[in-house]
Design goal:
8-stranded mixed beta sheet; 307 residues; single chain; 11 helices; SDR family NAD(P)-dependent oxidoreductase; Rossmann fold; alpha/beta
């Protein structure tokens, strides 16, 4: 543990038992942070409880000379988020950053998507983002500092087939993070999003290709888009080195880091006498069609290989 951008600080990382969350927790610890490693150890569908993944991450951090404590509460419940923050305060005396990386999938083509599948995904991703941010907010306000990092996704920012619930949650997180950034800026609290590209259980589970095609794709992602390549950006955004950076959406893929645009008006139509349906039908398609955002998928927007 030779780096110190997070020295003396305490961070809570949800979903830190595996994948991106695991690597973020380890990276934060390597930068000097004490870490609450939160993970239910559930399946991708949110089923079952197994504390061993979180405990293994704690052991790895401690073996490298860092400090960490495992936590098995559910971020989908506000009381669970409160328990995580309480664990940070009781064990390490403060809280300086939260990273919400926990997630589940219930993929389904939209006309077959069940209400419980929609709600379950929103509860972990979007409600979880609110729960952990809100639980930490009073402490951040009182100490006049704090950093929040949320995981969004290109499934929401750009689009993916069969993931309406996941996309809705991830776009909701963007709006939540922006609002937190605006509301909390007076207290020196920052909130940002990362859209990660990394091999993980979630990526591995997405259907749509033959087993052979999927295995070839997975092998490329295992080596070129690794979870440990996401972690430095998250740790940086938690640190004081990111002072003044808030309300932004970043991406990380392989060795690439990029900044996403955010919705702003791009074209305007005006009539002094106002608009009717007929006038819109006559004017709008021809005037605006060239500026429409295409119905692209993530793979259409990122056609180049990560290196």
């Amino acid at each position: 543990m030779s780096n110190d951008l997070m020295k003396g600080k305490v961070a809570v990382v949800t979903g830190a038992g595996r994948g991106v969350g695991r690597e973020i927790a380890i990276c934060l610890a390597a930068e000097g942070a004490s870490v609450i490693v939160n993970d239910l150890g559930a399946s991708l569908q949110g089923e079952g409880v197994d504390m061993s993944p979180a405990q293994e991450v704690v052991q790895a951090i401690e073996a490298a000379g860092g400090k960490a404590v495992a936590n098995g509460d559910s971020v989908a419940e506000y009381s669970g988020a409160e328990n995580m923050v309480a664990a940070a305060l009781e064990t390490f005396g403060r809280i300086d950053a939260v990273v919400h990386s926990a997630g589940i999938l219930r993929d389904s083509i939209f006309h077959k998507l069940e209400p419980d599948q929609f709600e379950a995904v929103l509860r972990v991703h979007l409600f979880g983002a609110f729960n952990i941010s809100r639980a930490a907010a009073p402490h951040f306000r009182n100490q006049n500092s704090g950093a929040i990092v949320h995981m969004t996704s290109t499934s929401g920012l750009i689009g993916s087939v069969g993931q309406a619930n996941y996309a809705a949650a991830k776009m909701g997180i963007v709006g939540l993070s922006r609002s937190v950034a605006l509301d909390m800026q007076r207290f020196n609290v920052r909130s940002n999003c990362i859209a990660p590209h990394a091999f993980s259980r979630m990526i591995e589970s997405i259907p749509g290709k033959t087993p052979e095609e999927q295995e070839r794709e997975m092998e490329k992602r295992r080596t070129r888009t690794r979870a440990d390549q996401i972690a430095p950006l998250a740790a940086f955004l938690c640190s004081d080195a990111a002072e003044g950076i808030s309300g932004q959406i970043f991406g990380a893929r392989g060795n690439e880091v990029y900044l996403y645009s955010q919705p702003r008006p791009i074209r305007t139509l005006h009539r002094d006498d106002g608009w009717t349906v007929a006038k819109l039908a006559e004017t709008l398609p021809g005037a605006l069609r060239a500026s429409f955002t295409p119905l692209e998928r993530t793979r259409d927007v990122f056609p180049w290989e990560a290196i």
